[in-house]
Specification:
Helix content is 60%, strand content 3%. The chain is mainly α. The model has no long low-confidence stretch (mean pLDDT 90).
């Protein structure tokens, strides 16, 4: 069953694309520079700090990325997920302008680790290794 626009988060203030985009850039840069193993170790170690200081959206993205990179990882803390968030602001805008096919494409290409935490990312943007 295809996802409908009403099912995704549409409050851009809640999504906070500025913070989310910065988070995605920093994580991609760190992953590239540190390599997968060191990246995972570094972010596992600081996860408690991030859960207290990062926005819900950025934290959900981080946890999804950690689980995507290491399927054996599972976050067992409390995290509010709510409606799925389209991680790409341009794609979000296109969907809000009525491109429901784009929403279907993104949803079908989003890895399960990201879907689990309510992040619709499609394929590619987090594939930095």
């Amino acid at each position: 069953m295809a996802m409908r626009i009403e099912q995704i988060e549409t409050n851009k203030t809640y999504i906070d694309y500025t913070t989310l985009n910065l988070t995605k850039k920093v994580l991609a840069k760190d992953l590239k520079e540190l390599g997968k193993e060191q990246f995972l170790g570094t972010y596992y170690t600081k996860l408690g700090f991030y859960t207290k200081t990062w926005s819900s959206t950025a934290l959900r993205y981080l946890i999804a990325l950690l689980e995507y990179l290491n399927p054996a990882f599972s976050y067992n803390g409390k995290i509010s997920i709510g409606k799925p968030i389209v991680a790409d602001e341009n794609a979000f805008q296109e969907i809000m302008n009525g491109n429901i096919q784009l929403l279907d494409q993104i949803e079908s290409k989003t890895p399960s680790a990201f879907k689990k935490y309510g992040i619709l990312s499609g394929a590619g943007e987090h594939m930095v290794l």
